[in-house]
Write a structure and sequence with these properties.
The chain is of the alpha+beta class and 110 residues long. The chain has one domain. The longest helix is centred in the first third of the chain and has 11 residues. It starts with 5 loop residues before the first strand and ends in a 10-residue tail after the last helix.
Length: 110
C-alpha cells in the first residue's frame, strides 16, 4: 500500500451491498464508472482508503483490486483474492501476501 498512489476496485454490478458501501464511504474520494457488468471505482490512495482495504475481512470483498504506482501496476488481486499478481515482490512481500490471502489461494511464483 505504501508504494501505490492509485487504487482501482472492480465489482460485479449485482454486488449491490459492496458497491453501496464503497459509494457511501468514499463518494468524494473515488470516481465510479459503469462498464457492461462491472462497477469500477478509481482514485488516489489515501490513509482512509488504505485502512478500509487493509481491514481484515473473511474474504476480499471486491472482485478485483488493482494498485498502481503512477501508471505501472504493482499489485492485482482477482476473483475475490483467489488470484493475484505482484511484480518484483520481495520475499518479505510474498510472506505478507500469503499471510493475508484466503487459505485456498494458489500461488505461482516466477
Amino acid at each position: 500500500m505504501k508504494l501505490a498512489n492509485t487504487i482501482e476496485i472492480h465489482c460485479w454490478n449485482e454486488e449491490t451491498e459492496v458497491i453501496e458501501e464503497i459509494k457511501s464511504l468514499f463518494q468524494h474520494s473515488l470516481e465510479s464508472t459503469l462498464e457492461e457488468n462491472m462497477t469500477i471505482f478509481k482514485g488516489s490512495s489515501n490513509p482512509r482508503i488504505d485502512d478500509y482495504l487493509l481491514d481484515r475481512h473473511e474474504k476480499i470483498k471486491w472482485f478485483s483490486l488493482f494498485l498502481y504506482k503512477d501508471s505501472s501496476s504493482i499489485f492485482h488481486a482477482g476473483h475475490w483474492g483467489k488470484e493475484f499478481y505482484s511484480p518484483k515482490a520481495s520475499d518479505d512481500d510474498i510472506a505478507f501476501i500469503k499471510s493475508v490471502m484466503p487459505a485456498e489461494t494458489i500461488y505461482h511464483q516466477y
